[in-house]
Design brief:
alpha+beta; binds zinc ion
């Protein structure tokens, strides 16, 4: 697969840590499998992976709802 940013390099699977924020809750997601461009270094996280992570963030923030801690 070619890099969508520079259109030159080939993207290869790698690992990174993604920091997401949802409703003031910050979540570091480790071991995110992005595709990394060998030419420009652009990290591309697939929509499928993004959706999974976003769901995890939303669940995490739901668990931290105000008033939920007794
Ligand atoms: Zn590139």
């Amino acid at each position: 697969m070619k890099c969508p940013v520079c259109n030159v390099g080939q993207v290869q699977p790698g690992k990174t840590t993604l920091t997401l924020e949802n409703d003031g809750v910050k979540l570091d997601v480790q071991g995110v499998p992005p595709m990394i461009c060998a030419n420009c270094g652009q990290e591309t996280v697939s929509e499928e992976v993004k959706a999974k992570i976003l769901k995890a963030v939303q669940e995490a923030s739901a668990g931290n709802a105000p008033g939920g801690n007794a």
